[in-house]
Specification:
mainly beta; Jelly Rolls; globular
Amino acid sequence: MTDSSKGVVKPVGELELQTVQAGTAAQTQVLLGDEDGAPNFAMRRFVMGEGGGMPFHTNAVEHEQYVLRGRARVRIGDEVHDVRADNAVYIPAGVPHSYDVVEAPFEFLCVVPNSPDTIELVEQDS
């Protein structure tokens, strides 16, 4: 863990992209988090490729997101949104949501509380 009183600057290009196991053609990087001394929030970057996305699921923590590029259909609860670059997205904790890439790469920043998080897949009505 880094001394949080000094701040952190690091090149994102040196951070490894990890495959998102629950997703399709989806990767993530932890840009800032506990290991950097950030006591309250983690900042992550997600990149989803052609045909990519995430199935309908819930998280134990809220998500604040900023879309950098691309386009996707993002379902939050019963509503579907066409999300694109320069959109901000808020997903409350426990609310089912999903992502379907329309224009790849779909890339966004996601800020979440530094709290335990669990992902649970949600059955969709046919």
